Each structure stands twice: as C-alpha cells, then as structure tokens.
Amino acid sequence: MSTNNETKQATAKPGDSIKVHAPGTVANLVCGFDILGLALNEPCDEMEIKIIEEPKVIIHHKDNYNLPLEPEKNVCGVALLAMMDKLDNKFGFELTVTKHIKPGSGIGSSAASAAGPVVAANKLLGNYFSNEDLVQMAMFGEKLASGVKHADNIAPCIYGGITLIRAIHPLDIISIPAPPMYVTLVHPQIEVKTSDARQILKKQVLLKDAIKQWGNIAGLVAGFIKSDYELIGRSLEDVIIEPVRSILIPGFDDVKAQSKEAGALGGGISGSGPSIFMLSKNEAEAKAVEVVMKDIYEKIGIEYYTYVTTINNEGVKAIGN
Amino acid sequence: MSTNNETKQATAKPGDSIKVHAPGTVANLVCGFDILGLALNEPCDEMEIKIIEEPKVIIHHKDNYNLPLEPEKNVCGVALLAMMDKLDNKFGFELTVTKHIKPGSGIGSSAASAAGPVVAANKLLGNYFSNEDLVQMAMFGEKLASGVKHADNIAPCIYGGITLIRAIHPLDIISIPAPPMYVTLVHPQIEVKTSDARQILKKQVLLKDAIKQWGNIAGLVAGFIKSDYELIGRSLEDVIIEPVRSILIPGFDDVKAQSKEAGALGGGISGSGPSIFMLSKNEAEAKAVEVVMKDIYEKIGIEYYTYVTTINNEGVKAIGN
C-alpha cells in the first residue's frame, strides 16, 4: 500500500476528534454494472471519530438498526481495523455513528459505513493516506457487508462526484466530470439482499447484448464529460442486469416509464435495489418525478421514502460540531 | 430517411464532378468491438464522381484488385444505388475509383468504397443529405462486403476523428474528441475474412469478462475526451475478442508487447485483422513502433506493408484535380 508521501509521518494525538457526513451513493448507474457510481448530497450518515491511546476500535451506534458493535463484525469497525493495522497499531479509534442511510436500501449504506470512518480518521492524520489507500481499507467493510470486495459505492463516497472503476486488480479509479444534475430516489420498504440480487444474475451474457451495453456505457461516459444531457438520457439503458433484477422490485417498470414522461433523463435500479433513482436536468422535473414515485407506491400499498437531491462532488466531508 | 432540410432540393447537373480521398479506418479500437472506430490520414482511396443524365451507376476501377464492375455487385455501386433511389432516380453517377486500401486488410477498405462515393456525390448535391443519411446508404455497401450492416468503419470514414456507434437501431453516432495521436499500422499479407473472424467468436461471454470490457471502454472514452494519454494506454485492453482473433494473426503477441516497449500507448487488431495498429503520443515513438513491426515480420518471413500516420479529423474530403 502506497501513501501520499513515504517520508511523511502519521501524526495524531489521543483526544483529537472530527465529525463527518458520509454520503449515500448510487452504484451501477443503469448500464455501468460494477464500474460506475455517484455520490449524493442526501441521505448521509453522521459520524464522530476520536483518536484513543489504546490500539483498539470502540463503536457506538446512535441509530436503531441493531448493528453489531464488535469491530470485527461491524462494517465501520472492519475498515478502521484495516487502517490501524497500516499504522502498526500505534493508537486506536472511538467512533460514534448515526446512520441515516438504511441498510439494505441500495443507496450505499455499507459503503458510507466503511468509507466514512477511514476518511474521517485520515483527516485527523493529516491526510497521511491517499484516497486510493482509503478505498482499499473501506473495501474490507464492503466485503463484510456483501461478501464481495467491490468499490463502486466506496469510490464515489470517498472521491465525490461520478467515479469509474476501470479495473479492480490493480485498482484504477477515474473521476468522471458531469454537468449539474438532480437525483430523485425512492426506497420502497422491501428487502433485496445484495447477495440475492447478485445470485440471480446469469454468469454468461450474449455477446450481442454485451455490445449494446458497452455502446451505452461509452455513450453515458461521453455524455457526462461532454455535458450532453440528451446523450446521457439515451444511454441510460441496461439490457443485461435490469431485466433480471427489476423483477424483484414491485412497481419498477411504472416508476421508470412514468418518471421519464415526467421529464427525467432516465434512471433505474440504485445499486442492487430496491431503491430506484432518476436523473433530471432541473429541480422542477426532479420534484415531478418524486410525485410520480409517491403515487405509484401509494397505489401499490408499499411504504416508501423519497429523496430529491443533487450530486455530491466532495464525498465524505467534515462538518461543524 | 431524414434530410438536412426537408424543403431543400437536391440539385446537381449532368457533368458536375468532384474528386475525393476516402480514408482508411481502424474499427473496434481494442475494447470497443463493433462500437468504436477512427479515421486515418493514410492509406486512402481516390475517387472521382460525375453526375450523368441517365439514372444508372457506371463504375471504372483504376486499381488491380479485380473488383466486379456491375454496380449491384460492387460496394461503391450498391451505396450509390441506395442514394439514387432516395433521389427518385432523377439522374445517375459515373465513378472512377483508384483503391489504395487493399481489400481484406482490416483497414476499412470496404467502408472507404461505400462511404467515399456517397459523400462525394452529396458534395455535388449541396450537402442535401445528412451525415447520418450517408452512413445509412454506405451500410448497404458494407453489407455486401461483409454480410453485416455495421457502421463502425463507415462512421469515422464519413465523420472523421473517433466515432462511437452507441446504437444501431436507431442509429446513434457520437463524435469522440481526442488528443493528437500517431497511428502505426502493419498489414501482414495474409488473408483473414471478416466473415471468418466473426464466425470464430463465441456467442456468449462471461459476465465477469464483460464487466472488465466495459470498464476499459468507459476508461478509453474518458481518456480520449480528457486527453489523458496514460488512461488511454491502460484502457487499450480486450479480454473478449482479441484472445480469440489474435490466433489468426502470426506475430500478434510479439508486435503488441514489443510495440509497447518501444513506447506505444497500446493497440491491437485493426478491425477484424490481419492488420495491427498501435497508438503513440508522438512521431518518434510511432516510428520506433514501425521498426519493431518490420523486424518481426522480416523474421517470420511474411510480406507486409506499414504506415505511420495520424488521425484524420475530416473524413472523406474533396481534393484538387
């Protein structure tokens, strides 16, 4: 693991503390399965981390999600243990977490848990580690949560904005500039486990479908960098994952079709679901999309949360006390 | 078929003529199978087209490739017949072609044959048709040549630069800006038929390979638009098509490895082969790559041509008499 500066010392003194917001994230972005993700300004988790003398990790949760407090079984804890190990266990961390991103929502709850603490700790360490180092540590947390060491939520959570994971071995993360966009999310209160959502995917895909998919990915990336909203909209199409996974989400087809009628550029499953996200060019459209989403889940009779937010270009950020 | 301007009239009078260069093209660009392509400044075909009164297509070839002269069996002819049809057979075309791009080279010989005449004719018609219309007409020629109506050579031949075919139905062509680059090509004089090269591909691919591929395509497009040469180099990787097709090209692995050692950013099979292309940041590296290529085919004992050229940003262009 490389550090920003090999000659730098990791300095922090017991008692030092910082509060951060760790943002929710949307992974996949329809056609970019396992490679694309974006960070949200809402929802986000709140965390306070304190350097302690003893080389151990202490975790407090101020939320009601009944998450395990033993660091080896806690997503935040596993990431912090990975960092402690890199620091030769010279000191420890005490973390207080208030999760607002509901676990299992598909909005990067575990990525926020994994990324927030290590970014926060790194701020206390004078940015001793690079962003890429932090992604590597946070991936231990993601592995605990989903069984897979993936980075498509962690990368945007740490870097902010839209990120591309070009490759995992070795890790190659690219920031993708994009024009301003609004994100409307609906989280229908049903459970879709990431592991189940992964299980139902076919191991093989038709070459002709893969070609369609990479045309759309290339179009989406070009659309983002060229600030071409029309191209972004046309490219938000997934012929491989969505047709399989959307079956697990009641109301999906209606949400997608009616959101586009209401003005959304496009959208689809957020991560592995059950949340659905839609991108819009302006706030009025994003709010019209929210109305559509509410109507649909009221009719179906499933509880839901909605968010209308924007892309978070900073990632995990320090907040006042 | 839409035209640039529905109220415009296609005007051209018998006797009007124009000469054009129709450029060679590199399709696929390693990871962008069937969706990406770029136009070359060399080699290119020379064509002169003349409007004639009688609604028919007359073709003369000044090269020695023994191509059929009946318009229905000639790639240029088929494209021109498609255009004549759109013009309600009000007049005809007489075409004189000197092909410099050897058929079967993998450098877009059939695309130049198909695109050159319709772009040239359109110049005489006051650009009555849009570029997209011209691609549609030229695709008839490509279909005659390879059995498949693909546009990944035709689009860069007509638009110039690097093009993305995001989708075929309906056709969606995106110009991808890119930094200056040199292209070194070697055409080993062996025959690889496009239809054979397509036949040996598996109809299904592993999802995990498809994910690697779309990471690289996204990286390549981002690298082009962001003028990030390092990213372009890292993204020029193909885990799906190249491992299968490169077996048909003697010396391929050596050319690729030694070209990169000589300074190339990367490269691979040009179209369906047998030509191999390499992208370089500057001319010195591109020429060093040419030396490597020559050495390899001298040793193997296969005849070859090489080219050191640049990206052609204009596509088919008018030339003086």
Topology (SSEs and partners):
2 copies of one chain form a homodimer.
Chain A (H helix, E strand, L loop, with lengths): L16 E11 L8 E17 L4 E5 L13 H12 L5 E7 L10 H16 L6 H16 L7 H6 L2 E6 L4 E5 L5 E7 L5 H6 L4 E3 H19 L3 H7 L6 H4 L6 H10 L4 E4 L6 E5 L2 H18 L3 E7 L6 E3 L2
Parallel strand pairs in A: 3-4
Antiparallel strand pairs in A: 1-2, 1-12, 2-4, 2-5, 5-6, 7-10, 7-11, 9-10
Protein name (chains A, B): Homoserine kinase
Pathway (chains A, B): Amino-acid biosynthesis; L-threonine biosynthesis; L-threonine from L-aspartate: step 4/5
Organism (chains A, B): Pinibacter aurantiacus
Describe this entry's structure for a reader.
Two copies of one chain form a homodimer. Chain A is 36% helix and 25% strand. The first copy, chain A, is an alpha+beta fold. Chain A has two domains: 17-175 and 315-319, Ribosomal Protein S5, domain 2 (2-Layer Sandwich), CATH 3.30.230.10; 182-310, GHMP kinase, C-terminal domain (Alpha-Beta Plaits, 2-Layer Sandwich), CATH 3.30.70. In chain A, the strands form two sheets. In chain A, strands 1, 2, 3, 4, 5, 6 and 12 form a seven-stranded mixed β-sheet that branches. In chain A, strands 9-10-7-11 form a four-stranded antiparallel β-sheet. In chain A, strand 3, helix 1 (75-86) and strand 4 form a beta-alpha-beta unit. The mean pLDDT of chain A is 94. At the A-B interface, strand 5, strand 6, strand 8, helix 6 and helix 7 of A face strand 5, strand 6, strand 8, helix 6 and helix 7 of B. Chains A, B: Residues 79-161 form the GHMP kinase N-terminal domain.
